[in-house]
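Fold sample X.
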Amino acid sequence: MKKDRHLYLTGYRGTGKSTIGRLLGRKLNRQCVDLDDRIEELAQKTIKQIFDEGGEESFRSWESDALRLVAEGDPSVIALGGGAILREDNRRLIAETGLCFWLDADAETLLQRIHSDLSSATRRPALTDMSELEEIRGMLKTREPLYRQASDSHLDVSSGQPEEIAKEVLRRWLDFCGV
């Protein structure tokens, strides 16, 4: 495995993909790309506006377009949106262009983290009309097989500080790269 591939982080909202991605970007001397930020740049709209105007299908199309553009770029650390793995083409592209690390936590931990992140509530819409905790549990159950399929490595991030988690991802990344 060559180190000239992308390092992807996947997992549900609140798992720390963006925070850990920035730490890994510094450690690997690579750009860290937050795919949600790239979507907003391309669409010239917020994620909430994209959902409000075109629904989830429109957002997923923007997400796929942004992923293709990022995947064509220089090797980077890429923090995927929690649903980027929903489309088979995205999962295939991730597998072809890099290694993917699945950051995972229990629903209660995720809810607590989402509530403590002020930008999460305003930036990302609810995807169902269930209570927040029920939505998270349902989404995790639905997405777990896809996260498993898309990832090369699984890390439980329910506990531990971002720096510790980043070090573990880096250790696994280097193992995969044969360093």
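Fold sample Y, listed below.
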Amino acid sequence: MRDAAAPALFSAASPRDYFSLLKPRVMTLVIFTALVGLVAAPGAMHPALGAVSLLAIAIGAGASGALNMWWDADIDAVMARTACRPVPRGLIDRSSAGAFGVVLSASAIVLLWLASNVLAAALLAFTIFFYVVIYSMLLKRSTPQNIVIGGAAGALPPVVGWAAATGSVSLEPMLLFLIIFLWTPPHFWALALFREGDYARAGVPMMPVVKGEKETRRQMFAYAVLTALAGVSPAFLAGGAGPFYGAAACVLGASFVFFSWRVLVAESGDKKPAKRLFAYSIFYLFALFAALLADALLRHA
């Protein structure tokens, strides 16, 4: 009797299980970059409307995570990094995860429309569509360029934040988009280098699996250099970020290139430089956008 009751016991999902569907760690980065886009935008948005807009963007990001887990449940089950997610563990069934993601997506888009404007809501809808359909369904299992093209979805939150505040899109938020877009390949390929076995078992054609370590490292270094250059660019834009941001971007970018160079010259099979780069890449993006946020707050003070 105890054995028969066990499946029912462990299939009961808790609120924490549903929260984990939202990929909260990824959501944190999305919220922060969207906040920077919103605060850096010209003009002033009412704080209450700004908070609701950020909430809507956060819900949209979480919805994308839930829909991604719905679609990728089969490969999540065979990857050590993802096997503990609620769907592979049987805590939440696949259809429930999908329905949860759809409801959250619709709610986030409508909420952002009501709190800000139709352009921001349309951009959020496009972001969710791009991540779920273009990246997860079409690219992830078909090309080693999956994360390069799919990275556009993760790069859009500061543009959505800017649009929420202004009702328009200009060069400034597109530079923020470019920074995240170029940052994504070295960030994810660093993970793929020390999780190569996971992706190979799942049949996901990540760059190290298809092209090998050497080519992956070479491309990572090239993208790191481009990321560092893009990171400094807001300081050269007329009316853009000031010297504090420019100095911070130079130091952070140089360090990003250094960590990528260590990966490039590492001995074959040495995963430690890739792990260090992966950790630093997260710090880099947070620190860079924090410097941009500080610069924007000083300019608006």
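Sample Y note: DSSP finds 15 helices and no strands in the chain.
Also: The chain has two domains: 16-166, 170-301.
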